[in-house]
Design goal:
Length: 390
Amino acid sequence: MKGKSTEIIGSGYAGDSRKLERYNSINPPIYHASTVLFEDYAELKAVGQGQYEGFTYGTDGSPTQHAFEKAMTELEGGYWTRAFPSGLLAITSVLQAFLASGDHLLICNSCYGPVRRFARNLLDKYGVKTSYFPANVGADIADYITPETRLILLESPGSNTFEVHDVPAVVKVAHRHGILTAIDNTWATPLFFQPFAHGVDISIHSVTKYISGHSDVLLGSATVSEACYERFHRLCRALEIFAPQEACYMALRGLKTLKVRLMQHQASALELASWLEGEAAVERVLHPALASHPEHAIWQRDFSGSSGIFSFVLKPEYDEQAVARFVDSLDLFGIGYSWGGFKSLVTAGKFAQSDISRYHDRWMIRLNIGLEDVADLQADVQQALGRLSS
Ligand SMILES: *Cc1c(COP(=O)(O)O)cnc(C)c1O
């Protein structure tokens, strides 16, 4: 007679998911696993000899994670994808994979802010030097390259200020010098910009934004070309990088509705951006799909759509108190970070991150346009603009 505890451990589900009842759910399961079981000693031995094909441990990810990674590889047109617990971790892991002590890294000056902090506080400590270049650099990227430059990190359009890069021009120079290019493709999503078709070697997403789409998931992804696979895979193995399985499930789910959500975000944001251009308090609207945008022609050539986040620069007479009145009198816009979700959000500040940036020292408002009715959003912004001067 076995004891009760032994009976409990062996009862109900006895540790073999292959023997579960046939159940063909339309969505994938979410596996909770550290241990995955092997059939016999021969399999265990094969694992030890690096000759086992299947999953060996929870840190390998699960079929759910791999399904998401496969979807991203296909959508981006790359060779291999790894999911990360956040967008920032995807970026910093790429930097760790492709840079070593003594190397030089080039980053666009409109990059996602925390990337600068990583470069300053971590890369510098490990002997990687970083410098920054402006968005309109194009083929002049050659002037920023040193004999030690190994990687160019682009983000197009840039965070907060939405400068668009001439990606093919930068890529051409980079490849002539044997330098890799990576891009943060979060704004466009794989639907509106195809990095690998434009010659980029590595494409990164904050899946947290449009792909998950509901402000309830943190996840990142990095997709690499075949030539970059070895080095990137080695880093992922060394760190045993994996992503939360619920987040991978939610991202797969988000992908199914990405296009219909993006079409609505695109239409509403464009309508509001065009209307704001005619408002007296607004000096300039920073949205790549507007004809007034400095790199509109490049956007039109390389992108197949625009998403729902943009900024506008206020006329110089408005000070911080005016900005505060505007933000605080909005009703439908939440005050908060991140974007790509269903709810409209606002942030404000002096976004330009360095003095080589175009809108240095100017008050800017950033709007993430959600899925509310656009007429209501416009009425809300209009009444808030009215509070700028009172
Ligand atoms: C939010 C964001 C990130 C970071 O993503 P998290 O998932 O929040 O870590 C990276 N790049 C861009 C452009 C972003 O907007």
